[in-house]
Write a structure and sequence with these properties.
494 residues; alpha/beta; Rossmann fold; five-stranded parallel β-sheet; 45% helix; 16% strand; binds pyridoxal-5'-phosphate
Length: 494
C-alpha cells in the first residue's frame, strides 16, 4: 500500500516514509493512494487481539517485514501495558455493547495507537536509512499528550514536546502530563485552546524558520495526522466485531453500527477504513458535544469553524477543526486532491467550506452526526449507573446519547459504542453526576468514586497523587513557533 497527499496528485510513498514525515510537505495529510486492502472478518475468526493487529497492520503497512510487525505488536499490546488480557474487552448494556478502549497505561483510547507508534516510528526510521534525532511535536486536547509521553518515554533518539491548552484539560489530565517520566520529554501549556495548539504544530511543519533550526533533526508528529496512529485504530473495530460474533450477539456478516465520540475525527476515520477493508459496518455515528461543528457538517455539507468555542466536561472533543475529516473528503471524493486543496484553502481563509452535493450524499450513506448538551451528557452517566450499574466517562456518555437519538429515527441494527476513557479520568464530573458529593479536590473525588461504585481506580491514575510535577512552562499562543525553533536548536546542538 502506498500513501499520497490529500492535497496534491503526483507523489506517493510507502508507509515508513509517511510515518516518519507525519504531515506532507504541501500541508496535506497522507492517505492511502489506492484503498484496495481486503480483510474478511471470517479470516480472523478465533484470533487474539495481537494476531488481528498483525494481520491488519501487515496489509496497511506493507513495507514492514512480518517480523518487525510482530515485534511492534507484541511489545505494545502486552500485560505490562494493558490491565486486561483481551486488550479491548466489551461491556454489554441494554442497547448493545461498549468497546472498552481504556485499559492501557493512560486510561484513554489513545493508548491503543500510542503504545505501538514508537515502535513503528523507530522501525520506519531505520527502514528508510535515517539516523539522528527525531523531534515529535504533539498537540493535545488532553489524552493524546499523556499517551504520547508515556509511549515515547526514554525511546532512543526520540524527543517529545507536547502542547496542551492550559485551561482546556481536566486537572487529572494536566497532572498526568506534568508528572511524566523520561529524559526525552517536555510539556508546555498554551494560553489558548486545542485548535491553537494544533495550528502551532501544523505551522511548525511548514515553517522555514523551524526547518533552519532543525539541522539534522527530523520533525515528526504523534497526532492522529500521522498514519502510524490511524492504522492501529482499525484493529479494534475488527476485534469488537469478532468478539460479538463469538458471543453470539451477531452472526458473521451481519452489519453493525459503531458510535464514536469524536474530536479530531481520527477514531471514526479508522472505522471508515475498517469498513472500506471489508468489515460489515452499517453506519458510523459521529457523536459530538456542544462543539457540534461535525453534526452541522454531516447534515448540511457546510463546515464552519466560525462559531463560539465551548469548554465542556468532555474536553477531548472540544475541537472546532477536525483534521482527519480532510482524509474522508479525499477518499470519499475518489482522491480528488484538487477539491480538497480548494476546500482547505477556504477553511483557512474564510473559516468555512461547503462540499458538493454529490460528495455530501455519499458521506451521508455511511455517516450520521448527533450532539448533546452538557445536561444530557450528565443524564446519560446517571441513568446508566442507576439502571445498569455501568460507569462511563463523559465522552462515552455523549456517544450513548447519540445512539439514543439514532434509535429514535427508527434504526434497529446492532450497535457498539466506543468507550474512550476510564470514568476515573474525569472523576469529579462523573461523581457529581451519580451522587450529591462535589469535592473540590480531584483526588478526593477519585477515591469517593471508587468507594461509592466499588470500581477499581486504574493503577496509572491511582499513583498520580503522589508524583511530583516536573514541567511548569506556559506560553502565549503566538509564541509556539519560536518555542519550537528554540527547542530544535537545543536538540541539534547537543
Ligand atoms: C481523543 C479522544 C476522543 C476523540 O477522538 P478523535 O480521534 O480525536 O476523534 C474522544 N474521547 C476521548 C476520551 C479522547 O481522548
Amino acid at each position: 500500500m502506498l500513501y499520497t497527499s490529500t492535497r496534491s496528485k503526483n507523489s506517493t510513498c510507502p508507509s515508513q516514509e509517511a510515518i516518519v514525515q507525519g504531515l506532507c510537505s504541501d500541508g496535506g495529510l497522507y492517505a492511502p493512494a489506492d484503498l484496495n486492502v481486503k480483510v474478511s472478518p471470517e479470516a480472523l475468526r478465533g484470533m487474539s487481539y495481537q494476531k488481528i493487529a498483525e494481520t491488519i497492520l501487515k496489509e496497511y503497512l506493507s513495507d514492514f517485514s512480518t517480523e518487525t510487525i510482530q515485534r511492534c505488536v507484541t511489545s505494545a499490546y502486552c500485560s505490562e501495558k494493558f490491565d486486561d488480557p483481551q486488550i479491548v474487552p466489551l461491556t454489554g448494556f441494554s442497547d448493545g455493547v461498549f468497546t472498552d478502549l481504556w485499559h492501557g497505561p493512560t486510561s484513554a483510547f489513545k493508548d491503543l495507537a500510542l503504545t505501538i507508534m514508537p515502535y513503528l516510528l523507530t522501525a520506519s526510521y531505520q527502514g528508510i536509512g535515517k539516523t539522528g534525532k527525531i523531534a515529535i511535536l504533539t498537540a493535545t486536547s488532553g489524552d493524546t499528550g499523556k499517551a504520547a509521553l508515556s509511549g515515547f518515554a526514554d525511546v532512543e533518539n526520540t524527543y517529545v514536546t507536547v502542547f496542551y491548552p492550559e485551561n482546556g484539560v481536566s486537572a487529572i489530565q494536566k497532572k498526568q502530563m506534568k508528572t511524566s517520566r523520561g529524559a526525552n520529554v517536555c510539556v508546555i501549556g498554551v494560553n489558548g485552546n486545542f485548535d491553537d495548539c494544533q495550528r502551532t504544530v501544523k505551522e511548525a511543519f511548514a515553517s522555514e524558520y523551524v526547518k533552519n533550526a532543525c539541522r539534522g533533526v527530523t520533525l515528526s508528529s504523534a497526532n492522529s495526522i500521522n498514519i502510524g496512529r490511524l492504522v492501529p485504530q482499525i484493529v479494534y473495530y475488527y476485534s469488537t466485531y469478532l468478539n460479538l460474533v463469538e458471543k453470539g450477539r451477531i452472526k458473521m456478516n451481519d452489519e453493525v453500527t459503531f458510535v464514536v465520540p469524536t474530536g479530531n475525527f481520527g477514531d471514526v476515520l479508522a472505522g471508515y477504513l475498517a469498513k472500506k477493508s471489508g468489515l460489515p459496518i452499517h453506519r458510523l455515528i459521529v457523536a459530538s458535544n456542544s462543539n457540534n461543528v461535525l453534526t452541522d457538517f454531516l447534515k448540511t455539507g457546510t463546515y464552519s469553524r466560525n462559531r463560539p468555542f465551548h469548554e465542556t466536561i468532555s474536553p477531548s472533543m472540544d475541537i472546532l477543526v477536525s483534521s482527519n475529516l480532510e482524509r474522508l473528503l479525499f477518499l470519499e471524493s475518489g482522491n480528488d486532491s484538487g477539491l480538497v486543496s480548494t476546500l482547505m484553502k477556504q477553511l483557512d481563509e474564510k473559516g468555512e467550506y461547503t462540499v458538493p452535493a454529490s460528495l455530501l450524499d455519499s458521506i451521508q450513506n455511511t455517516f450520521r452526526g448527533f450532539w448533546c448538551t452538557e445536561e444530557d451528557c450528565r443524564k446519560e452517566i446517571r441513568a446508566l449507573w442507576e439502571e445498569e450499574q455501568i460507569l462511563i466517562d463523559p465522552h462515552t456518555a455523549v456517544a450513548r446519547n447519540a445512539l439514543r437519538q439514532y434509535r429514535a429515527e427508527g434504526n434497529s441494527e446492532y450497535a457498539a459504542v466506543l468507550s474512550t476513557a476510564s470514568p476515573f479520568k474525569f472523576s469529579r464530573d462523573v461523581l457529581s453526576c451519580i451522587s450529591a458529593y462535589e469535592p473540590e479536590d480531584d483526588f478526593d473525588a477519585m477515591h469517593q468514586l471508587a468507594e461509592i461504585t466499588g470500581r477499581r481506580i486504574p493503577a496509572g491514575l491511582a499513583e498520580l497523587e503522589m508524583l511530583e510535577e516536573r514541567f511548569h512552562t506556559v506560553i502565549e499562543k503566538n509564541q509556539g513557533i519560536e518555542t519550537i525553533a528554540a527547542k530544535m536548536r537545543e536538540l541539534s546542538d547537543d
